[in-house]
Amino acid sequence: SKTIYLKDYRAPDYLIDETHLTFELFEDHTLVHAQLVMRRNPELSAELPVLSLDGQQLELLRITLDDRELTAADYQLSDSHLTLQPTQASFVIDSTVRIHPESNTALEGLYKSSGMFCTQCEAEGFRKITYYLDRPDVMSKFTTTVSGDKQKYPILLSNGNPIASGSEEGGRHWATWEDPFKKPAYLFALVAGDLWCVEDKFTTLSSREVTLRIYVEPENIDKVQHAMDSLKKSMKWDEEVYGREYDLDIFMIVAVNDFNMGAMENKGLNIFNSSCVLARAETATDAAHQRVEAVVAHEYFHNWSGNRVTCRDWFQLSLKEGFTVFRDAEFSADMNSRTVKRIEDVAYLRTHQFAEDAGPMAHPVRPDAYMEISNFYTLTIYEKGSEVLRMIHTLLGNQAFRKGSDLYFERHDGQAVTCDDFVKAMEDASGIDLTQFKRWYTQAGTPRLAVSEAFDATARTYTLNFTQSCPATPGQSDKLPFVIPVELGLLDARGNDLPLRLQGEAAASGTSRVLSVTEAQQSFTFVDIAEQPLPSLLRGFSAPVKLSFPYDRDQLMFLMQHDSDGFNRWEAGQQLSVQVLQELIGQQQRGEALVLDQRLVTALRSLLQDGRLDQAMVAEMLSLPGEAYLTEISEVADVEAIHGAREFARQQLAEALFEPLWQRYQANREVSKGTPYVAEAEHFARRSLQNIALSYLMLTGKPEVLAATLEQYEACDNMTERLTALAVLVNSPFEAERGKALEAFAEHFKDNALVMDQWFSVQAASTLPGGLQRVQALMQHPAFTLKNPNKVRALIGAFAGQNLVNFHLADGSGYRFLADQVITLNALNPQIASRLLAPLTRWRKYAAARQALMKAELERILASGELSADVYEVVSKSLA
Ligand code: BES
Ligand code: ZN
Fold first, then answer.
1. Helices 681-697 and 286-301 sit at what angle, rounded to 10 degrees?
2. What is the pLDDT of residues 643-674, one digit of tens each?
3. What are the Peptidase M1 alanyl aminopeptidase Ig-like fold domain coordinates in residue numbering (predicted)?
4. Are 286 and 687 in contact (CB under 8 A)?
5. Is 263 in the pocket of ligand 1 (CB under 6 A)?
6. Contact of 855 with 863, CB cutoff 8 Å
7. Is 857 in the pocket of ligand 1 (CB under 6 A)?
8. Does residue 326 line the site of ligand 1, with CB under 6 A?
């Protein structure tokens, strides 16, 4: 395996103006004919270098250059390239290759899923379809003809608009699609199958009518309305917020069961993991409904941020992914609760991206080297990339940001560009210099920001001192200061925001404002401050940093109640919980009796008793920081102590708060009983409080709670309530009820693969002893298969990622199990194998005994035989 470097980027020697593809689909092979209309890149010299086309796992049957049939003497073939010498500046290459989608288990290129043909080309899958310049800066106009059996594959789809179709002898038929927009090969798509669709219409800002179609297997046709509604909302939102209109006459989504990722933004023909399209009350949870809405939006938004303006090379991946995640997050915030969306995203970032940024695979938002690009669809590219865009938005303000995005889309329409081009557009539109800010793109690691205060009663000034630093990451020992936008407010003793006037300013401006911390050490002094204030720092999590300020617990309780920023009210609660839990972890490690700080009980009680608060916020604030987050913030993570302390706290809270929890549970369950399912924020909020209350209540083991759980399980009309009741039973000591419910659930939903995924996950995540044995037994269940990525994630991924006490069992059996699965999957599906491996790469977080066991399993994978580039890169870098 070799490393690719950003510094080696060179423009393509040749361009492909037109790409004409014909696919002949058969049961035991597929023929791909490609006609490439090519020319020398006019920006380079006139001489004609050799042409090296990418191609993997292709059987070359025929190739011509300008109608001259080539023989083996005219070209060189390796397992990754076809090389030949052009003799003219413009020429046409025609090739025919044979491929085998029917045996493609890697799910990259053309493959079969549940009897249908589909493609996944990003990032470098097109080279498994035909010989091509498979790089995003080669953009071409595509026409695609698909031919296949009419009965088996009545629907034949590709990018763009349908322009012709017809029948052939032998029960076959064909269709031709033309995409008028130039695109890189990674946006190519083809689908052939027996599919039904729901159709709708959308009229754009400029009154063009667009046909919308969502294709699914016939039995799922009753589960697409939510995705269709989400699509129409997305189209409208992108017009209103970004001025972006859809550009083809038809927009299609296809749901497939076997898919490595969530979904893919192929031009005009998005292909989705069925888990990100299908949703209805009876089978999908509230979280799943919101996921569908977000993914539909994300892929739709790529039509501009990714497709019309694409990436020059894969080092620029965050240009499209970070930006599009930021866009979809703002969309979800507008559709639902803004504060709750922010809380969820920040919790996810701090638990998972911060861990990545502190681990062996840490890399900048714009990496400068990689071995296997599939490994770089990371939390850093996506989530930190989105935070970088959010900071630009914060620094520029909404208006200038919109001017910048308008300029970016106009200036670069039809081009393949870089993150620098994006930032330049933002600078040109706003007049703000982002030179130093761009360090966010090039320096890896999570910055720390330590804050201290000094109040001067006589001078009536209040000073905040900021110190920033960033730990070393692989290949980067020294970091320069970042531009850190810190949104803040100052609370007076009654909890009101004070007017903010910095020294040197003529007047106060606002009560919440953004300071830019740009130096390693920097102070800001506020004037006219009569009494010692309490700072509310990093409101809305205005920068992806680890902030520290020496709050005591009473101050955190005060912020929980009074901060005008909803995110920071939640954040204060989290910090309070972290302090309390860390105290319990210490007690546990010293073998002392555990004693819960009653202030946490008091704080949560007052939340539960305040009927005016947003119920979703109350639910979020009742959720203690997860074990994975507690691991991330530990110097050395003590798996058992973290689990023990957190469970002790949950138990204590459940007992102390039984009355208010029971009251809120019953009230909400009553409303749920009388309300048909609605996938909207207010209803999500009610159910989230109801369900977290139930999960606490069950810890008391009271018979009335068991009865309520069984009532909810049996009588509810939606998966949110049903799955919570099931999860509560699965984690309870009521063995008989648990067994009965699991069995009934599986019997009822055995034909619904996505629901069975949830059934697997609930059991995989159960922290009761014996978790590994349960997971191993479930792998033998008829609904389980290693060939389906959703199943692998639902069972093995959930076990290793969420069931920390069982996965990290002291004898190393969890690690051995995971390594075994990675070795098997390496041969079947390298991308899934390498993603599954992530928990083992975190060995540095643990004490010596676990480190040794984890490393031994990584070594065993390394020695297990022929490794894919995907698995090799992750294993070798995490051992380095
Ligand atoms: N372009 C990606 C899908 C992709 C990723 C294809 C990696 C091939 C390799 C798509 O736009 C995407 O980012 N999908 C996300 C979901 C999204 C809501 C963040 C995914 O698939 O997880
Ligand atoms: Zn994306």
1. 140
2. 999 999 999 999 999 999 999 999 999 999 99
3. 445-548
4. yes
5. yes
6. no
7. no
8. no
pLDDT in tens, 535-548: 999 999 999 999 99
Answer yes or no: is pLDDT of 305 > 80: yes
Tell me phi and psi for residue 274, to 5 degrees: -55, -25
Provide the edge-to-edge strand list for the sheet that holds 521-526. 521-526, 461-469, 448-456, 546-548
**Bridge partners, residue 24, by sequence:** 31, 147
Token look-up 């909207």 returns: 680
What is the SS3 string spanning 706-724? HHHHHHHHHHCCCHHHHHH
Model pTM score: 0.99
Cβ atoms of residues 445 and 472 within 8 Å: yes
Asked if 536 and 489 touch (Cβ cutoff 8 Å), the reply is: yes
Residue the block writes with tokens 């670069």: 412
- Token pair of 331 as six digits: 């969309």
Degrees to nearest 5, angle at CA 71 with 68 and 76: 115
Contact 239, 295 (CB under 8 A): no
In ligand 1, the atom with minimum distance to the C-alpha of 297 is: 18
DSSP type of residue 132: B
Choose the catalytic residue: 124, 299, 356, 383.
299
β-sheet bridge partners, residue 62:
96
Structure tokens at 720: 């949110």
Structure token pair of residue 511: 């009560």
Helix, strand, coil percentages in the chain from 3-state DSSP, rounded to 5: 45, 20, 30
Q: Label residue 531 exposed, middle or buried (CB < 10 Å: 0-12, 13-18, 19+).
A: exposed
And the tokens for 640? 């058992």
Over residues 152-162, the mean pLDDT reads 98
**Residue found under tokens 């039509």:** 303
Nearest CA to ligand 1 atom 10: 264
Active site annotation includes 857? no
The DSSP annotation for 355-387 comes to HHHTSTT---SS-SEES-GGGG--HIIIIIHHH
Residue nearest atom 13 of ligand 1, based on CA coordinates? 321
Instruction: Find the 308 Cα to ligand 1 centroid distance in Å.
Output: 17
C-alpha span between 639 and 523 (Å, rounded):
39
| Cross-strand pairs, 145 | 22, 176
556-583: per-residue pLDDT in tens?
999 999 999 999 999 999 999 999 999 9
- Give 325's Cβ-side CA count (13 Å radius): 22
Percent of the chain having pLDDT more than 70?
100
